[in-house]
């Protein structure tokens, strides 16, 4: 059995599918202040604006499909003789779709650490459910009386499944970071955790990230080129 792998992905892996990244000049925040659309305070101040922002992003998913980088990671899950944990900061469902129908060779997990556009959360109970349509301030929650919010981790909130992620990092032999600018913690600190565990660390990105010097191996170019090439070499 080969060493276990933890893969971290960010907005860059979905860029060539047509999902804009966050920090590009024409980026995903669409001219909104981050505080207005991606914080609990922003939601409390103007829930109509926040719902509208995420409704548009949810609708946008219908027009995009997984690209060659997502597909290469699905091939890895199917063929790699070791455990793979795929941790994404992305709230799109492109990893989910590219893995549909794939039987992993060994253990496989997919964690959306910043939540998912296609899930809704009950404001009152915190319970979540699949959600494909729009959410409005008067959309009833199936679980409580105070309505729904997107099941997205906003700034100031705790990302999901951190115990499971740190557990995997502490035992991994290879850590691969793909398409993330390394600006946002805790994800930006995963490379240091993997290094402490003695893992080989690799950055695949369009250009050097904030923490690029922390990686032992670095390959730069569009995700649809560098990711399939790296995965084929690995397999
Ligand atoms: N191929 C590979 N990398 C790319 C491509 C591409 N085609 N296009 C852009 N990139 C790279 C950029 O160079 C940048 O380093 O992807 C990275 C995207 O960075 P961000 O926009 O900052 O996105 P991300 O790192 O995922 O942001 C992290 O911050 O805004 C919050 O919660 C949000 O999950 C998000 C988190």
Automatic annotation (TrEMBL):
<protein>
    <recommendedName>
        <fullName>NAD-dependent protein deacylase</fullName>
        <ecNumber>2.3.1.286</ecNumber>
    </recommendedName>
</protein>
<comment type="similarity">
    <text>Belongs to the sirtuin family. Class III subfamily.</text>
</comment>
<feature type="domain" description="Deacetylase sirtuin-type">
    <location>
        <begin position="1"/>
        <end position="235"/>
    </location>
</feature>
<keyword id="KW-0520">NAD</keyword>
<feature type="binding site">
    <location>
        <begin position="10"/>
        <end position="29"/>
    </location>
    <ligand>
        <name>NAD(+)</name>
    </ligand>
</feature>
<comment type="function">
    <text>NAD-dependent lysine deacetylase and desuccinylase that specifically removes acetyl and succinyl groups on target proteins. Modulates the activities of several proteins which are inactive in their acylated form.</text>
</comment>
<feature type="binding site">
    <location>
        <begin position="89"/>
        <end position="92"/>
    </location>
    <ligand>
        <name>NAD(+)</name>
    </ligand>
</feature>
<feature type="binding site">
    <location>
        <position position="57"/>
    </location>
    <ligand>
        <name>substrate</name>
    </ligand>
</feature>
<keyword id="KW-0808">Transferase</keyword>
<dbReference type="InterPro" id="IPR027546">
    <property type="entry name" value="Sirtuin_class_III"/>
</dbReference>
<feature type="binding site">
    <location>
        <position position="223"/>
    </location>
    <ligand>
        <name>NAD(+)</name>
    </ligand>
</feature>
<dbReference type="InterPro" id="IPR029035">
    <property type="entry name" value="DHS-like_NAD/FAD-binding_dom"/>
</dbReference>
<dbReference type="InterPro" id="IPR003000">
    <property type="entry name" value="Sirtuin"/>
</dbReference>
<dbReference type="InterPro" id="IPR026591">
    <property type="entry name" value="Sirtuin_cat_small_dom_sf"/>
</dbReference>
<feature type="binding site">
    <location>
        <position position="54"/>
    </location>
    <ligand>
        <name>substrate</name>
    </ligand>
</feature>
<dbReference type="InterPro" id="IPR050134">
    <property type="entry name" value="NAD-dep_sirtuin_deacylases"/>
</dbReference>
<dbReference type="InterPro" id="IPR026590">
    <property type="entry name" value="Ssirtuin_cat_dom"/>
</dbReference>
<feature type="active site" description="Proton acceptor">
    <location>
        <position position="114"/>
    </location>
</feature>
<dbReference type="Pfam" id="PF02146">
    <property type="entry name" value="SIR2"/>
</dbReference>
<keyword id="KW-0963">Cytoplasm</keyword>
<feature type="binding site">
    <location>
        <begin position="179"/>
        <end position="181"/>
    </location>
    <ligand>
        <name>NAD(+)</name>
    </ligand>
</feature>
